Amino acid sequence: MHEELRKAVCDANCELPKQRLVIYSWGNVSGIDRAAGVIAIKPSGVAYDELTPDKIVLLDPDGNLVEGDLKPSSDTPTHLELYRNFEAIGGICHTHSVCATMWAQACREIPCFGTTHADYFYGAVPVTNVMANEQIRNDYELNTGKVIVDRFASLDPMQTPAVLVANHGPFTWGKSPAAAVEAMAVLEQVAATALGTITINPSQSAISRALLDKHYLRKHGKDAYYGQSQV
């Protein structure tokens, strides 16, 4: 059952090493079929070159096993919390990609310094609050999801489909597993470019609102004109 979802999630996971976003088994991608009430996610600790669709684990929205012989990713509670709260998303990606993780470990958001960033993220990529000791000791992975959701209380997760978990690393999402991986690849590029920017000019200010709006909305706004018309 759910072969299409399993294949989409497997393919998205296998894209991570191709994009140099992971080493070993450091990362995971999930996808959701909301109509069927099924989440598919990478099994814990399985290397990407060993991953096949039949190894993808299927769960219900409460994390109960639906199908599969392997344990799901240890980050599963984080994914489930995001699916419960971000109703428009269809896929989630988590990695420890180098540059994005540098910003997360520094507990700093990534400012929008230019149009490369603005083409994809509508403003700074936010960073969460540092987790309290109690949040870490009990239900750590679930609380990771909660601090992400709290950070987006006044933000649209589809306008900025990425977050930096303080002291930890990045999560991204999108309408599909493939879109979540694309967001992670873009985030890593943006993180590297921002790091270079402040290395060259530590006092560099963020992009103007006018230029941010122009570049983001021409691709993602209601009157977007970037790319080819869909007939």
Task: Describe, in plain words, how this protein is organized in 3D.
This protein has a seven-stranded antiparallel beta sheet with strand order 4-3-2-1-5-7-6, with helices on both faces. The chain has 231 residues and is an alpha+beta fold. The protein is globular, with a radius of gyration of 17 Å. The chain has helices at residues 3-18, 76-85, 98-105, 115-118, 133-137, 140-151, 177-200, 209-220, and strands at residues 27-33, 38-41, 57-59, 65-67, 91-95, 162-165, 169-174. α2 runs parallel beside α6 and α3 crosses α7 (177-200). It has one domain (3-220): L-fuculose-1-phosphate Aldolase (3-Layer(aba) Sandwich). A hairpin with a 3-residue loop joins β6 (162-165) and β7 (169-174). The two termini are 33 Å apart. It is built from eight helices and seven strands. The mean pLDDT is 96.
Order of helices and strands: HEEEEHEHHHHEEHH
Task: Assess the beta-strand content as a share of residues.
Answer: 5-15%
> What is the number of strand segments?
7
CATH domain class name: Alpha Beta
Q: Kindly state the mean pLDDT as a whole number?
A: 96
Q: Name the quaternary structure.
A: single chain
Question: Order of strands across the widest beta sheet?
Answer: 4-3-2-1-5-7-6
The number of helical elements comes to 8
Main sheet summary = 7 strands, antiparallel
Structural class: alpha+beta
Global Rg: 17 Å
Provide the CATH topology: L-fuculose-1-phosphate Aldolase
Estimate the helix proportion, in percent: 25-40%
Total number of distinct structural domains? 1
Contiguous low-pLDDT stretches (5 residues minimum) are none
